[in-house]
Specification:
Number of strands: 8
Strand content: 25-35%
Distance between the termini: 22 Å
Order of helices and strands: EHEHEHEHEEEE
Number of helices: 4
Helix content: 10-25%
Radius of gyration: 15 Å
Structural class: alpha/beta
Largest sheet: 8 strands, mixed
Length: 159
Amino acid sequence: ANALTEIISPVWGAGELQLVLPLLRDISTQGRSALWISPPCIPYAPALANAGVDIARMIIVTPPTSEILWGIEKALQSSACAVVLAWPGALSGKHIRRLQLACITGQTLGFLFHQRHIRHSCAMLRLRAEADDDALTLTVLKARGSYRHDHIRLPLESL
């Protein structure tokens, strides 16, 4: 908990959401909730249920664009949800710092999904996810405590 992870993907639907499915399944079976803020597409409930996620524990909100950052920050500061998944649009390094601090305050795990690399980010973990035929290629851009930039190739059917 209390960490912000960035998942950067040039296009939505490359398989990036499958990275958090095991976590969503675990928290939902524990009776805890996940808050989805401004996802680019409505999550497909049958696929989530098929992956073992209790869809009754998934809360989706789409605030006005002017209130997305505020909503993400307040959700992360609260311990009401175990996980916050957010698609914030344009962010600066300053915004990401505020969100990381909000994770610490609320002891919450946050995931930011966006499409562009932000140069100065204090997120604990930064991944770039790209679809590649039948696999998802992950590049570790930053992992607190590590200077390695590893590449991981995950077959999509195993996710």
